[in-house]
Design a protein that fits this description.
The protein is mainly alpha-helical. The chain has one domain: Alpha/alpha barrel (Glycosyltransferase), CATH 1.50.10. It contains 14 helices and 4 strands. It has a two-stranded antiparallel sheet. It has a two-stranded antiparallel ribbon with strand order 3-4. The two termini are 16 Å apart.
């Protein structure tokens, strides 16, 4: 009865392999635990005397390093934080502006979303006031330019970098959605009074307009061709992975890996069910394009960002093994964990030889990668 109750709570199906080898992840867990400790030790060595990491104009670097630090399984979540973590959190809090955002040189959504996730990851009530203000900043940055519904702007429902003079995109939208979902526990009990929330219906419409799925995307670039169906692009009408010419003369915007996992995670936080055609379609695309060797559609570009969205999305989806083509299944935790462990440098850090999207920055990439390992570690079924 205890086993059945545990399965019901998890809401997931344990594979036959797991039943036969309940400790099959034990060795990997120990290796990841050590790797996480080495990665966080390297990050600690890179902290600036003021308490921040890397560029003080971009609090996101500090926020990502702090998220990696507080989620470390080697750190007692109930004990007082080590001095360097407290110093980092205090620096981050000191960057909060009157509009609730945590930013310095623009990019207010990106910096605020990553900072909100870091503060929420602590689980400590003394940061509630800052969390509530940061939440409002992100909600205020959801686009709705006030046009009629039948002619609304393609950016509506999404979130951009923090200006409503350019456009929205999947990366900022997913980061904002994630931060709001992870911080919602702060406002759920009502002790802070009525609090605003994202327009989730509009958000789902925006997400759908970034997915290659003709049945739910009302835009002409949506494609059901086998190569792209179900996957995501960067923004309505824009893909970082280029285009495909279809036999019927149309042009398809290519789906790619990191943003498709961001789309799956966003759908989950928006409470779409697993049997929703949009969720089923993106999982099918991810299964067809499964790899830990590259960012599908982008090669080495943004591969560590890809690992982060991959680990978060598959864990949130309660997927133990991802269904691939031909009836095969992939143990993504083992595949991704081993790949990441193999690429850690001797000093404990990671870096991408391809520098697009700042992945030549070892602080950024190490924080990404430690967070990916922690996501795998904490998602392993007991």
């Amino acid at each position: 009865m205890k086993l059945l109750s545990a399965l019901a709570i998890l809401g997931t199906v344990v594979s036959n392999a797991a039943e036969q080898k309940p400790n099959r992840y034990e060795s990997l867990k120990q290796e990841m635990r050590q790797s996480i400790a080495r990665g966080n030790a390297w990050l600690k060595s890179q902290q600036k005397p003021e308490g921040n990491w890397d560029d003080d104009a971009l609090p996101a670097f500090t926020a990502l390093a702090l998220t990696a630090a507080v989620r470390d399984p080697n750190v007692d979540p109930k004990a007082a934080y080590p001095e360097h973590i407290e110093k980092g959190i205090n620096w981050l809090l000191s960057q909060q502006k009157s509009d609730g955002g945590i930013y310095n040189r623009g990019l207010s959504v990106y910096n605020t979303a990553t900072s909100l996730t870091a503060l929420s990851s602590t689980g400590r009530e003394n940061y509630d006031a800052a969390i509530i203000k940061a939440r409002k900043h992100l909600i205020d940055n959801q686009w709705d330019i006030g046009q009629k519904k039948e002619t609304d702007n393609l950016n509506d429902g999404g979130v951009g970098y923090g200006s409503k003079n350019d456009h929205t995109d999947m990366s900022n939208t997913y980061l904002a959605i994630e931060a709001l979902a992870l911080s919602k526990k702060v406002i759920e009990d009502g002790k802070h009074g009525d609090q605003p929330d994202l327009d989730w219906g509009a958000a789902v419409k925006f997400l759908s307009r970034c997915q290659n799925l003709e049945g739910s995307n009302d835009q002409p670039w949506a494609s059901n061709d086998p190569k792209n169906k179900g996957g995501f692009i960067y923004a309505p009408g824009e893909s970082k992975a280029g285009e495909d010419k279809l036999p019927d003369g149309r042009t398809a915007l290519r789906s790619y890996g990191s943003i498709s996992y961001a789309g799956l995670l966003s759908f989950i936080y928006a409470k779409l069910t697993p049997d929703d055609p949009r969720v089923a379609a993106v999982k099918e695309w991810l299964g067809k394009n499964y790899t830990v060797g590259e960012n599908p559609g982008m090669g080495a570009q943004g591969v560590y960002y890809y690992y982060q969205t991959m680990s978060k999305a598959l864990a949130a989806a309660n997927i133990d093994t991802l269904k691939l083509e031909g009836g095969k299944e992939a143990d993504w935790r083992k595949d991704l964990g081993e790949k990441i462990l193999a690429t850690q440098r001797e000093n404990g850090s990671w870096v991408n030889d391809n520098g697009r999207w700042m992945e030549s920055n070892a602080v950024l990439v190490t924080a990404y990668t430690v967070m990916s390992l922690e996501q795998i570690y904490h998602s392993i079924p007991e």
